Automatic annotation (TrEMBL):
GO terms for biological process: copper ion export; copper ion homeostasis. The chain holds residues 392 to 689 of 748 of the full protein. Keywords: ATP-binding, Cell membrane, Copper, Copper transport, Ion transport, Membrane, Metal-binding, Nucleotide-binding, Translocase, Transmembrane, Transmembrane helix, Transport. Belongs to the cation transport ATPase (P-type) (TC 3.A.3) family. Type IB subfamily. This is P-type Cu(+) transporter. The keyword Transferase does not apply. It comes from Hymenobacter lapidiphilus. GO terms for cellular component: plasma membrane. It is found in: Cell membrane.
Length: 298
């Protein structure tokens, strides 16, 4: 590629909010045949909100929420922020001087978080987190969880001192532009695949909503780069699109990494292209530009 063509290409990209790091990124975009998309924060807005909070009989939400919020205030996960916001909206009052403080906070990667609050061991996270701690749900919460999953909610499970006491249903909306952008990528002959740490049912619903048939669910952060490699082992040239810290290794491993501009700095540093408009339309623009640019040169 000639320096002039690259300059024109990157300049055009910038005017569309597509920041192309260098010539190599543009050349790679030309070769890509498979686009792997992170779900949360990439296909969806990444602004999760708690829509249901269900407690076991005998447990008052107002007694439990401050404990959960105390744990989640210490976490940097977007789902944690949703729990904190919900607790504040419910205007759960704690007596002055009694505001729950979490100690011994632990973040369990891809699973949830835990801490000691008011002398009690509190856990909140996905099903795997409870299972790993040998905590059973009980028929009442089991049924409630099934109901939430059927509505494509991300379900958070909460336990205190080894007892499962509540569930939170969390909803995150698909970005308005996602389905159309994915359709355009597919019409350019690209295979679009989705990957997420979220549960299988929610993943399937979102994939279906945006016209994706192949997806990986319940992928631990440490395994995301491995999924890129799996696709590469099929002989594919893979572009990975993501926003989070946990996407960085996959962005680096991919033939081309694209980071959502509204995401974390770590993701942007690992990527060859940054999408300033936090919108999958930018992926379509990047591919189209690379085809224009590289074609005019060859
Ligand atoms: P994603 O790929 O969707 O960004 P992550 O790998 O970050 O997901 O997390 C996977 C799952 O772990 C989440 O869907 C959630 O169920 C659980 N989880 C992680 N951190 C937390 C937390 N702080 N509070 C509650 N649940 C959490
Ligand atoms: Mg994400």
């Amino acid at each position: 590629a000639t320096p002039t063509a690259i300059m024109v290409g990157t300049g055009l990209g910038a005017s569309h909010g597509v920041l192309i790091r260098n010539a190599e990124a543009l050349e790679k975009a030309y070769q890509v045949d498979t686009v792997l998309l992170d779900k949360t924060g990439t296909i969806t807005k990444g602004e999760p909100a708690v829509t249901e909070f269900i407690t076991a009989t005998g447990t008052e939400p107002s007694a439990l929420l401050p404990l959960l919020a105390a744990v989640e205030r210490r976490s940097e996960h977007p789902l944690a922020a949703a729990v904190v916001r919900y607790t504040e909206q419910q205007q759960v009052q704690t007596a002055p001087g009694e505001a729950a403080e979490a100690t011994d906070f632990v973040a369990f990667e891809g699973r949830g978080a835990g801490a000691t609050v008011a002398g009690r061991a509190v856990l909140i996270g996905n099903r795997r987190l409870l299972e790993e701690n040998n905590i059973m749900l009980g028929p009442e919460l089991e049924q409630a969880a099934a109901g939430l999953l059927a509505q494509a909610r991300t379900v958070l499970y909460a336990s205190v001192d080894g007892q499962a006491l509540a569930l939170a249903g969390v909803a995150d909306t698909v970005r308005d532009t996602s389905a159309a952008a994915i359709r355009q990528l597919q019409s350019k002959g690209l295979t679009v695949v989705m990957m997420t740490g979220d549960n299988h049912q929610t993943a399937e619903k979102v994939a279906h909503q945006v016209g994706i048939t192949r997806f990986y669910a319940e992928v631990l952060p440490a395994d995301k780069a491995g999924k890129v490699q799996e696709l590469q082992a099929e002989g594919r040239v893979v572009a990975m699109v993501g926003d989070g810290i946990n996407d960085a290794p996959a962005l680096a491993r991919a033939d081309l990494g694209l980071a959502m501009g509204g995401g974390t700095d770590v993701a942007m540093e690992a990527a060859g292209i940054t999408l300033m408009r936090s919108d999958l339309q930018g992926v379509v623009t990047a591919i189209a530009l690379s085809r224009q640019t590289v074609r005019t040169i060859r």
